[in-house]
Amino acid sequence: MFGKKKNIQQIDKQQLELIQNAQRRVKQKKRLYIHFVFFLIGSVFIILANVVLGIGETVKLFDIDWFVFAIIAWLFLFLYHAFNVFVTHKFMGKEWEQKQLDILVAKQQQRIDKLKEKFVKEETLMAQSEAYNDAKKISKKNSELTIIVAAGENDAIGKDNKLIWHLSDDLKRFKSLTNGHHIIMGRKTFESFPKPLPNRTHVIISRQNNYKVPEGAIVVNSLENAIEATKNDSQPFIIGGGEIYKQAMAFASKIELTRVHENFDADTFFPKIDTAIWKETGNAFHNKDDKHEHAFSFMTYEKR
Ligand SMILES: NC(=O)c1ccc[n+]([C@@H]2O[C@H](COP(=O)([O-])OP(=O)(O)OC[C@H]3O[C@@H](n4cnc5c(N)ncnc54)[C@H](OP(=O)(O)O)[C@@H]3O)[C@@H](O)[C@H]2O)c1
Hints:
Layout lengths: L12 H39 L8 E2 L2 E2 H27 L1 H48 L4 E7 L3 E3 L9 H11 L3 E5 H6 L8 E5 L12 E3 L2 H7 L7 E4 L1 H7 L5 E7 L7 E2 L8 E9 L9 E8 L1
This protein binds NADP nicotinamide-adenine-dinucleotide phosphate.
């Protein structure tokens, strides 16, 4: 009862069909061979019957003995049989029909697959354009929603929740551009400040329900809500960090970038600026000096 199961060899359906088909073919050929033997013996028999036994001696057509016509007629019958076995069977048999059917089904399936692929592509494009339009609607409300960022040549922007460099002119530019405006940031960037920046309204994005912030600061639970909270500002700024920049690229209409001309070791990066979407409209180079350890450029990009 608990012994090993017997390994019953099973021939699969396809193999069985092949065997049955082969058996059929052997039978057909055997029948043809028997027919051939009968034809030979029969022909000899007819000739003997006529010539030796004199059967139907007087029956002639166009002065030719009847057995010649009989043998020719039989020969045609035999050739027709052979034609059926070797030619018609090959082209018109069940196997041939099945093959044709399979080809048609495969072609139909290909057409269905292509249609499906086209449909999925169109649907994705529609969804993308809807998302793009939604982003556009929101960014229109804030025509100058501006990303402000300093990034290395390799797009590095931070490490261990800190900035990587200290560039005095960059900080001055940041202060002067954002002064009096809303600054939108991720919770981690906010926590990287020693204290809130003066004369700016901080909008902090966090998924935490009871995230506490100093008086005057606003907490929201999504980027869309952050943008909504700044709708009365003519130029709100997205000030980072990496997670928020990534999400804000679709909504912003301007990028104020300080490109620091070196590669840095970092754990946070700015997304690649796609020049098919963004057009460079400003570029000012600053060399290294006593106050600036690295060369950098102030660059402005505007959405095309
Ligand atoms: N070079 C520069 O110009 C620059 C500027 C700014 C920052 N930085 C650097 O960037 C780094 C910080 O960037 P980061 O990417 O780690 O963090 P981050 O973007 O500043 O903040 C990430 C946090 O934001 C919240 N958040 C993100 N997406 C959200 C969404 N869709 N809805 C709700 N909340 C969302 C989450 O907060 P909860 O976890 O609370 O839910 C998340 O943990 C630091 O190294 C900083 O120094 C550099």
